[in-house]
Write a structure and sequence with these properties.
By secondary structure, the chain is mostly helical. Helix 2 runs antiparallel to helix 5 and helix 6 runs antiparallel to helix 7. Helix content is 80%, strand content 0%.
Length: 130
Amino acid sequence: MLQQDYFIRILEEFAKALSLFMLNKKDLGHKQEEILKLYDSYVGDNIFYHTASMDDIMDSFTRFPEEERLDRMEMLAELYYAESYLKSGPARDMLLENAHKLFIFIDTHSHTLSFQRQQRIMQIGKEIGK
């Protein structure tokens, strides 16, 4: 029970941090630094999540307790999605594709209906042409 309460606090903290990131009007360089810190703080090494294959990324979540995995994946998907607004060209496309794949995986494996997740899937799908 304590572990679950702790993880719920982490989820709440992540949501606040991501909201502040999105609302922050700092220059692009500072925003890029901030998003990389969010990767490191909530899901793991940002370099890994920018260079690994999707199979390796999915395998990386086995280090988390099973009850946290989908939520951690959703954190990563949200980070990819948020970061895509800082990029252009192929880097943006890769971030959106990764976010899209993760959101679809989460949606098919989660026992919780999320209209926000389904909206993200549709919105990203339009942006990447799927």
